[in-house]
TrEMBL record:
Alphabetized UniProt keyword annotations: Cell membrane, Heme, Iron, Membrane, Metal-binding, Repeat, Signal, Transmembrane, Transmembrane helix
Cofactor(s) named in the record: heme c
Name the record gives this protein: Cytochrome c, mono-and diheme variants
Positions of the Cytochrome c domain: 57-160, 202-310, 330-417
Gene3D superfamilies in the record: Cytochrome c-like domain
Residues where heme c 2 binds: C217, C220, H221
Originating species: Azospirillum oryzae
Coiled coil stretches, renumbered: none
Domain of life: Bacteria
Record field: transmembrane: 16-39
GO molecular function: electron transfer activity; heme binding; iron ion binding; oxidoreductase activity, acting on CH-OH group of donors
Subcellular location per the Swiss-Prot or TrEMBL entry: Cell membrane
Chain sites annotated for binding heme c 1: C71, C74, H75
Note describing how the cofactor binds: Binds 3 heme c groups covalently per subunit.
Length: 440
């Protein structure tokens, strides 16, 4: 017998009901998974450990690891006690304030167990069960081995206890509702503990472990999506933004006139200046300051790993810099005169500073970037030595140059020392940077 059209309609209705039921079950499962992540119970407090509870070697190892992780940078306010929090962290979603991670029982982590500390580092959940914002890069810290987290815990628990209550975050509505972070984690928190790759040697694997874990290098040097999560896959290390500075690509797509090598990266990471690429500025300054005190073998390992990301890139080892002095001066004679008076003493060929390892402008990365942010910020804010008085120094010119003069100077530098397209809207960019600097 052939099925009647009524039977066909009944079968269609059953299919629709089946799909609806399946969809409802899937939704319930999704809601259940969300609620399971959203609700996290608090963990009990423990007596604050004594410094004598931890072996000296473990504390020393934790100090080195915390240095590579830049813990002190984010968790110390300007003029504040070390690790006591309170530093403002600007994000596209508002301002977060770092928390106190000294062993103070009331305002810090003095009552936290090792288990509570590890949960915060790996899952982004506070001891009391609150979700933590991913400004704490727990998506990277999930890769860190258990023993290293134990060492960092030992180091922090032996710091001076400081009473410093947490400041209220200033986030756009409704992002102050922390359970929403469970959805973010459901989508993006899937990293696993680092496993060495057998096709690479021990130095490379050590560098990968530190860079991808505690160092969280891709956190700045990768683009982020609308939810603030790193874009992975082919976009990893393809460049990003950090505190208004361009973090150049490290995967070979960067604009550096000369390819980075493991040796040149080591010099840069250890001292803050590399004669053919530039000087550490902006958020890289504190990174270099930390790495200047980290174990040399670890810094070399990180340099080895980062250099491998662009190993396929080839270019002349010493490319001939473009000589566009006359062209730049003709296009902007006022800026040429300004350069001669304010900049040439350090940056013109043969200047004393050029014989002391300072980078030449024809290969400095800031002038090769697609965006003028780094060049403008360096002119306005100057460059401060990240590794002590012997490091690279450039005075700020915010008080002596107008936005129009900064724009003219940046345009002149771009034309003279690179063969890349001219930057646009430079005066507006300078005004934006100046406004940001004037805000508390």
């Amino acid at each position: 017998m052939k099925p009647t059209r009524w039977a066909g309609r009944a079968a269609g209705r059953r299919a629709v009901v089946g799909w609806a039921a399946g969809g409802a079950l899937a939704c319930l499962a999704g809601v259940g998974a969300f609620l399971g992540i959203a609700y996290r119970s608090g963990l009990p407090t423990v007596p604050t450990p004594k410094a004598s509870d931890f072996p000296v070697e473990l504390v020393s190892r934790g100090a080195a690891l915390a240095t590579i992780g830049d813990c002190i940078v984010c968790h110390t306010a300007d003029g504040g006690a070390a690790y006591a929090g309170g530093r403002a962290l600007a994000t596209p979603f508002g301002t977060l304030y770092s928390t106190n991670i000294t062993p103070d029982r009331e305002t810090g982590i003095g009552g936290w167990s090792k288990e509570a500390f590890k949960r915060a580092m790996r899952d982004g959940v506070s001891r009391d069960g609150r979700h933590l914002y991913p400004a704490l890069p727990y998506d990277h810290y999930r890769r860190v081995h258990d023993g290293d987290l134990d060492a960092i815990y030992a180091f922090l628990m032996t710091r001076p206890a400081t009473s410093a209550p947490a400041k209220a975050n200033e986030l756009i509505f409704p992002l102050g509702f922390r359970p929403l972070l469970a959805g973010w984690k459901l989508l993006f928190l899937h990293q696993e503990e680092f496993t060495p790759r057998p096709d690479h040697d021990a130095v490379w694997n050590r560098g990968a472990y530190l860079a991808e874990g505690l160092g969280h290098c891709s956190g700045c040097h990768s683009p982020r999506n609308l939810a603030g999560a790193e874009e992975t896959g082919g976009s990893a290390y393809s460049g990003g933004m950090a505190e208004g500075w361009v973090a150049p690509a490290l995967n070979g797509a960067g604009p550096a006139a000369i390819p980075w090598t493991a040796d040149s990266l080591f010099t840069y990471l250890r001292t803050g200046v590399e004669g053919r690429h530039g000087a550490a500025a902006g958020p890289m300054g504190p990174v270099v300051h930390g790495l200047s005190r980290a174990p040399e073998s670890d810094v070399r390992a990180i340099a080895t790993y980062i250099a491998s990301l662009s190993a396929d890139r080839t270019a002349p080892e010493t490319p001939a810099p473009p000589d566009r002095t006359a062209e730049a001066a003709k296009a902007n004679p006022a800026a040429a005169a300004l350069f001669a008076g304010a900049c040439a003493g350090c940056h013109e060929g043969g200047a004393p500073m050029m014989t002391q390892g300072r980078p030449g402008l024809s290969t400095v990365t800031a002038l090769q970037l697609d965006r003028p942010d780094n060049a403008i910020r360096a002119i306005l804010q100057g460059i401060h030595p990240p590794t002590g008085p012997a490091g690279p120094t450039m005075p700020p010119f915010a008080a002596s140059l107008t936005d129009a003069q900064v724009a003219d100077l940046a345009a002149y530098l771009r034309t003279r020392f690179s063969d890349r397209p001219a930057w646009t809207s430079l005066e507006a960019a300078s005004a934006t940077v100046r406004k940001e600097e004037s805000q508390p």
